[in-house]
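Predict the assembly for these two chains.
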Amino acid sequence: DIQMTQSPSSLSASVGDRVTITCRASQGISNYLAWFQQKPGKAPKSLIYAASSLQSGVPSKFSGSGSGTDFTLTISSLQPEDFATYYCQQYNSYPVTFGGGTKVEIK
Amino acid sequence: EVQLVESGGGLVQPGRSLRLSCTASGFTFGDYAMSWFRQAPGKGLEWVGFIRSKAYGGTTEYAASVKGRFTISRDDSKSIAYLQMNSLKTEDTAVYYCTRAAGAESRVDYWGQGTLVTVSS
Protein backbone atom coordinates (compact mmCIF):
# COMPACT_ATOMS: atom_id res chain seq x y z
CA ASP A 1 0.00 0.00 0.00
CA ILE A 2 1.11 3.58 -0.63
CA GLN A 3 1.66 5.51 2.59
CA MET A 4 0.80 9.21 2.63
CA THR A 5 2.57 11.38 5.18
CA GLN A 6 1.23 14.85 5.88
CA SER A 7 3.00 17.58 7.76
CA PRO A 8 2.49 19.30 10.02
CA SER A 9 -0.24 17.41 11.84
CA SER A 10 -1.48 20.73 13.19
CA LEU A 11 -0.66 24.39 12.88
CA SER A 12 -1.80 27.68 14.34
CA ALA A 13 -2.14 30.64 12.04
CA SER A 14 -3.70 34.07 11.92
CA VAL A 15 -6.29 35.47 9.53
CA GLY A 16 -4.44 36.71 6.46
CA ASP A 17 -1.51 34.30 6.82
CA ARG A 18 -0.21 32.22 3.95
CA VAL A 19 -0.34 28.55 4.93
CA THR A 20 1.40 25.59 3.30
CA ILE A 21 0.73 21.91 4.03
CA THR A 22 2.90 19.17 2.63
CA CYS A 23 2.12 15.59 1.68
CA ARG A 24 4.63 12.91 0.78
CA ALA A 25 3.86 9.58 -0.88
CA SER A 26 5.91 6.48 -0.10
CA GLN A 27 6.26 5.84 -3.84
CA GLY A 28 5.59 7.80 -7.00
CA ILE A 29 1.95 8.56 -7.74
CA SER A 30 2.37 10.85 -10.76
CA ASN A 31 -0.20 13.59 -10.15
CA TYR A 32 -3.00 11.39 -8.78
CA LEU A 33 -3.27 13.47 -5.62
CA ALA A 34 -6.34 15.17 -4.15
CA TRP A 35 -6.89 17.53 -1.23
CA PHE A 36 -10.00 17.67 0.95
CA GLN A 37 -11.21 20.08 3.63
CA GLN A 38 -13.28 18.90 6.58
CA LYS A 39 -14.93 21.03 9.24
CA PRO A 40 -16.05 19.54 12.57
CA GLY A 41 -19.18 17.43 12.26
CA LYS A 42 -19.34 17.91 8.50
CA ALA A 43 -18.59 15.81 5.44
CA PRO A 44 -15.32 16.42 3.66
CA LYS A 45 -15.29 18.81 0.73
CA SER A 46 -13.20 18.27 -2.37
CA LEU A 47 -10.75 21.09 -3.04
CA ILE A 48 -8.11 19.95 -5.52
CA TYR A 49 -7.57 16.98 -7.84
CA ALA A 50 -4.72 15.98 -10.14
CA ALA A 51 -2.39 17.73 -7.68
CA SER A 52 -3.14 21.23 -8.91
CA SER A 53 -6.62 21.42 -10.49
CA LEU A 54 -9.28 23.27 -8.52
CA GLN A 55 -12.64 21.59 -8.09
CA SER A 56 -15.53 23.61 -9.47
CA GLY A 57 -16.57 26.37 -7.10
CA VAL A 58 -13.42 26.29 -4.96
CA PRO A 59 -11.89 29.75 -4.48
CA SER A 60 -8.54 30.49 -6.09
CA LYS A 61 -6.91 31.19 -2.71
CA PHE A 62 -6.41 27.41 -2.62
CA SER A 63 -3.64 26.03 -4.80
CA GLY A 64 -1.83 22.74 -5.11
CA SER A 65 1.45 21.68 -6.60
CA GLY A 66 3.76 18.73 -6.93
CA SER A 67 4.24 15.50 -8.79
CA GLY A 68 5.76 12.13 -8.07
CA THR A 69 6.11 11.89 -4.30
CA ASP A 70 6.03 15.45 -2.94
CA PHE A 71 3.01 17.70 -2.92
CA THR A 72 1.83 20.93 -1.29
CA LEU A 73 -1.45 22.66 -0.56
CA THR A 74 -1.26 26.41 -0.13
CA ILE A 75 -3.89 28.78 1.19
CA SER A 76 -2.83 32.24 0.09
CA SER A 77 -4.65 34.32 2.70
CA LEU A 78 -6.27 32.42 5.53
CA GLN A 79 -9.85 33.42 6.32
CA PRO A 80 -12.04 32.42 9.29
CA GLU A 81 -13.94 29.88 7.16
CA ASP A 82 -10.67 28.10 6.29
CA PHE A 83 -10.02 26.82 9.80
CA ALA A 84 -10.54 23.09 9.35
CA THR A 85 -8.71 19.80 8.90
CA TYR A 86 -7.12 19.13 5.52
CA TYR A 87 -6.41 15.67 4.09
CA CYS A 88 -4.39 14.58 1.09
CA GLN A 89 -5.34 11.42 -0.79
CA GLN A 90 -3.62 9.35 -3.46
CA TYR A 91 -5.76 7.66 -6.10
CA ASN A 92 -2.96 6.34 -8.26
CA SER A 93 -3.57 2.78 -7.15
CA TYR A 94 -5.74 0.67 -4.86
CA PRO A 95 -6.12 0.84 -1.98
CA VAL A 96 -6.79 4.56 -2.10
CA THR A 97 -5.02 6.05 0.91
CA PHE A 98 -5.09 9.29 2.89
CA GLY A 99 -2.65 11.34 4.84
CA GLY A 100 -3.28 11.66 8.56
CA GLY A 101 -4.69 15.17 8.27
CA THR A 102 -3.53 18.67 9.16
CA LYS A 103 -5.65 20.65 11.61
CA VAL A 104 -5.47 24.38 10.93
CA GLU A 105 -6.33 26.35 14.04
CA ILE A 106 -6.67 30.00 14.89
CA LYS A 107 -3.66 31.61 16.55
CA GLU B 1 -27.14 20.35 -8.33
CA VAL B 2 -25.38 17.11 -7.46
CA GLN B 3 -26.75 15.53 -4.28
CA LEU B 4 -25.80 12.32 -2.54
CA VAL B 5 -27.89 11.18 0.43
CA GLU B 6 -26.84 8.22 2.55
CA SER B 7 -29.33 6.27 4.64
CA GLY B 8 -29.56 3.03 6.57
CA GLY B 9 -27.14 3.69 9.39
CA GLY B 10 -27.84 2.86 13.00
CA LEU B 11 -26.93 0.67 15.94
CA VAL B 12 -26.21 -2.98 15.17
CA GLN B 13 -24.76 -5.84 17.18
CA PRO B 14 -21.42 -7.41 16.30
CA GLY B 15 -21.76 -10.18 13.75
CA ARG B 16 -24.96 -8.77 12.29
CA SER B 17 -25.57 -7.13 8.90
CA LEU B 18 -26.59 -3.70 7.69
CA ARG B 19 -27.18 -2.22 4.25
CA LEU B 20 -26.48 1.42 3.50
CA SER B 21 -27.99 3.24 0.55
CA CYS B 22 -26.72 6.28 -1.32
CA THR B 23 -29.41 8.01 -3.35
CA ALA B 24 -28.07 10.29 -6.05
CA SER B 25 -29.64 13.17 -7.95
CA GLY B 26 -28.58 16.02 -10.19
CA PHE B 27 -26.49 13.95 -12.60
CA THR B 28 -26.67 10.86 -14.82
CA PHE B 29 -25.89 8.27 -12.16
CA GLY B 30 -25.07 5.46 -14.57
CA ASP B 31 -22.21 7.44 -16.12
CA TYR B 32 -20.20 7.59 -12.88
CA ALA B 33 -18.28 5.31 -10.58
CA MET B 34 -19.16 5.54 -6.90
CA SER B 35 -16.97 5.16 -3.83
CA TRP B 36 -17.57 4.59 -0.13
CA PHE B 37 -15.38 6.00 2.62
CA ARG B 38 -15.62 5.91 6.40
CA GLN B 39 -14.37 7.84 9.40
CA ALA B 40 -14.21 6.31 12.86
CA PRO B 41 -14.94 8.71 15.75
CA GLY B 42 -12.08 11.16 16.13
CA LYS B 43 -10.03 9.49 13.39
CA GLY B 44 -9.04 10.17 9.82
CA LEU B 45 -10.61 9.14 6.54
CA GLU B 46 -10.48 5.56 5.26
CA TRP B 47 -11.38 4.24 1.83
CA VAL B 48 -13.87 1.34 1.94
CA GLY B 49 -14.45 0.47 -1.69
CA PHE B 50 -15.47 1.46 -5.17
CA ILE B 51 -17.77 0.38 -8.00
CA ARG B 52 -17.13 1.28 -11.60
CA SER B 53 -19.83 2.36 -13.99
CA LYS B 54 -21.39 -0.26 -16.26
CA ALA B 55 -19.40 1.20 -19.14
CA TYR B 56 -16.28 0.01 -17.29
CA GLY B 57 -17.77 -3.32 -16.34
CA GLY B 58 -19.41 -2.35 -13.05
CA THR B 59 -16.59 -4.08 -11.21
CA THR B 60 -15.60 -3.41 -7.62
CA GLU B 61 -12.52 -2.87 -5.46
CA TYR B 62 -12.34 -3.14 -1.67
CA ALA B 63 -10.08 -2.26 1.20
CA ALA B 64 -8.42 -5.28 2.80
CA SER B 65 -10.17 -4.52 6.10
CA VAL B 66 -13.62 -5.13 4.59
CA LYS B 67 -12.94 -7.49 1.69
CA GLY B 68 -15.11 -10.60 1.94
CA ARG B 69 -17.50 -8.91 4.40
CA PHE B 70 -18.69 -5.82 2.51
CA THR B 71 -20.25 -5.67 -0.96
CA ILE B 72 -20.89 -2.61 -3.07
CA SER B 73 -23.59 -2.70 -5.74
CA ARG B 74 -25.59 -0.26 -7.77
CA ASP B 75 -29.04 0.13 -9.29
CA ASP B 76 -28.71 2.61 -12.13
CA SER B 77 -32.48 2.60 -12.76
CA LYS B 78 -32.99 4.02 -9.27
CA SER B 79 -29.76 6.07 -9.03
CA ILE B 80 -28.77 4.26 -5.86
CA ALA B 81 -25.49 2.77 -4.70
CA TYR B 82 -25.50 0.22 -1.89
CA LEU B 83 -23.01 -0.90 0.73
CA GLN B 84 -23.94 -4.29 2.15
CA MET B 85 -22.05 -4.88 5.39
CA ASN B 86 -21.96 -8.38 6.85
CA SER B 87 -20.22 -9.86 9.88
CA LEU B 88 -19.87 -6.40 11.39
CA LYS B 89 -17.18 -5.78 13.97
CA THR B 90 -16.90 -3.08 16.63
CA GLU B 91 -14.05 -1.54 14.62
CA ASP B 92 -16.49 -0.90 11.75
CA THR B 93 -18.10 1.82 13.86
CA ALA B 94 -17.82 5.00 11.80
CA VAL B 95 -19.58 7.62 9.74
CA TYR B 96 -19.91 6.21 6.24
CA TYR B 97 -19.78 8.54 3.25
CA CYS B 98 -20.63 7.85 -0.36
CA THR B 99 -18.96 9.87 -3.07
CA ARG B 100 -19.15 10.35 -6.78
CA ALA B 101 -16.00 9.42 -8.68
CA ALA B 102 -15.39 11.47 -11.81
CA GLY B 103 -13.15 11.08 -14.80
CA ALA B 104 -11.29 8.10 -16.15
CA GLU B 105 -9.10 8.16 -13.06
CA SER B 106 -12.18 8.14 -10.77
CA ARG B 107 -11.29 11.09 -8.63
CA VAL B 108 -13.73 12.03 -5.86
CA ASP B 109 -15.65 15.22 -6.52
CA TYR B 110 -18.88 15.15 -4.47
CA TRP B 111 -19.55 13.75 -0.99
CA GLY B 112 -22.75 12.80 0.77
CA GLN B 113 -23.46 14.03 4.29
CA GLY B 114 -22.65 10.66 5.85
CA THR B 115 -24.52 8.13 7.96
CA LEU B 116 -23.38 6.82 11.34
CA VAL B 117 -22.99 3.09 11.88
CA THR B 118 -22.43 1.97 15.47
CA VAL B 119 -21.49 -1.65 16.07
CA SER B 120 -21.98 -2.52 19.71
CA SER B 121 -23.57 -5.13 21.90
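Chain A has no helices and eleven strands. Chain A touches chain B through 23 residues (CB under 8 Å).
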